[in-house]
Amino acid sequence: MAAECKHFVAKHQIFLVVYAVLFLFTQHTSAKNVLIIVADDAGFESQVYNNSVCKTPHLNLLARQSVVFNKAFTSVSSCSPSRSTILSGLPQHQNGMYGLHHSVHHFNSFDQVRSLPLILQNAGIYTGIIGKKHVGPEYVYPFDYSETEENHSILQVGRNITYIRKLVRRFFQKSSSRPFFLYIGFHDPHRCGHSHPELGSFCEKFGDGITNGTGFIPDWKPVYYNPKDVKVPYFVPDTPAARADIAAQYTTISRLDQGIGLVLHELYAAGHLNDTLILYTSDNGIPFPNGRTNLFDPGLAEPLLVSSPHHKEEWGKTSESLVSLLDIVPTVLDWFQLPYPKYKLLKKSVTLTEGTLLQCLQATVFMRSPCTIQCAQSVLTSINSFATSTTRCLSQ
Ligand SMILES: *[C@@H]1O[C@H](CO)[C@@H](O)[C@H](O)[C@H]1NC(C)=O
Ligand SMILES: *[C@@H]1O[C@H](CO)[C@@H](O)[C@H](O)[C@H]1NC(C)=O
Ligand SMILES: *[C@@H]1O[C@H](CO)[C@@H](O)[C@H](O)[C@H]1NC(C)=O
Ligand SMILES: *[C@@H]1O[C@H](CO)[C@@H](O)[C@H](O)[C@H]1NC(C)=O
Ligand SMILES: *[C@@H]1O[C@H](CO)[C@@H](O)[C@H](O)[C@H]1NC(C)=O
């Protein structure tokens, strides 16, 4: 009996070892990662969105390997609140980030919020943030690897693409073979006239290698534009001042675009181009009249590219589905096949209001089925886009 038992245990142990090896092997070959790139106050100044003047070759390349969403909206047109919705999946009024996080504003999400980085960290995924964070508190939004404005100059960590490239490379060295979640917050193409007027209205002189005393960003080849050529959005008055401003914005977008190219190159060099879900978006509209902070389409509409290596047959397509930045958390959880935790906020059970975009990717041609429900939900969260979008949405 004892011998039989021992025999059983031994056999069992062998199976365990075999399973462990299989598990490791499977883990390795089907490793799934997520890279989210959030630009700061970026809009649709890209050929991806039919702006033929502002050149964004790297974003174009990413778009060719993505589904491009034409009707994506944030639920709030302000930096910290919008970022809190991207990272928590809960609208700002539910997660507590009603206003800006930094200095005197001092807004924070509620202590009990279970953010995306927290959920992923608990699931053993290596989490990283590089660049602009602008949300808190730290224990609600913890990252294993964190190089942000909290302990760097925002110019370096958010606009110096050579510096960013180095931090991204270090992240991949540290993540080694673990599945990862990397969030990169570029500070470009945010305005900077208020804090660094000497660097130009969009910090377009920072590191350009021409302007005296602004240093040099080795990886950036600035692209310049004639104000006569720029495309003035319909909601901005067409004046010489606006045109000069937009030309500066475009030059800064060239730094963002080349930075995205460097990040994607690091991803490739780390061998993860084929097992990483990549999302590109922005926090709110462009910093022009009627844009950022306004409850109009130009304040709330966002660029959104979703590149999934598991949906290659959909690459290059566009989607007219009405989607929200609140969809990002459910999408990432779907990708990692993780459930959203059960918990309460202010004594009420928390549920995500939005859904995964991975279903939308499969349905870009016949997008009615999974995305129609989402349409209805998104309308509720993007109230102000109601007038323009509801008709389109409902007619789908
Ligand atoms: C860009 O132009 C193409 C071709 O005319 C059109 O199919 C597409 O919907 C346009 N995209 C946007 C965002 O307007
Ligand atoms: C910044 O803070 C993070 C988190 O505390 C730490 O891991 C990192 O080493 C710090 N970086 C610098 C340059 O101080
Ligand atoms: C950008 O970062 C690189 C690498 O750290 C550094 O050599 C360069 O001086 C920085 N440029 C500026 C303008 O700060
Ligand atoms: C750049 O600034 C330095 C010191 O401020 C000055 O000595 C130098 O002449 C300036 N160079 C140019 C090209 O303006
Ligand atoms: C990427 O993954 C696909 C399967 O999803 C595979 O067919 C292809 O060979 C892979 N490419 C590379 C470069 O690993």
Mean pLDDT: 87
* Shape field: globular
Portion in strands: 5-15%
In the CATH scheme, what's the topology name? Alkaline Phosphatase, subunit A
How big is the Rg? Answer: 22 Å
Order of helices and strands: HEHEHHHEEHHEHEHEEHEEHHH
Helix content estimate: 25-40%
- Could you tell me the number of beta strands? 10
CATH architecture term:
3-Layer(aba) Sandwich
Structure classification: alpha/beta
Domain Sulfatase N-terminal: 32-337
EC number: 3.10.1.1
Organism: Acanthosepion pharaonis (Pharaoh cuttlefish)
Cofactor: Ca(2+)
What secondary-structure arrangement, pairings included, does this model have?
Blueprint: H1 2-29, E1 33-39, H2 57-64, E2 67-73, H3 79-88, H4 92-95, H5 116-122, E3 126-131, E4 145-148, H6 154-159, H7 161-175, E5 180-185, H8 240-269, E6 276-282, H9 297-300, E7 301-307, E8 318-324, H10 328-336, E9 344-345, E10 348-349, H11 358-362, H12 368-381, H13 386-395
Parallel strand pairs: 1-5, 1-6, 2-8, 3-4, 3-5
Antiparallel strand pairs: 2-7, 6-7, 9-10
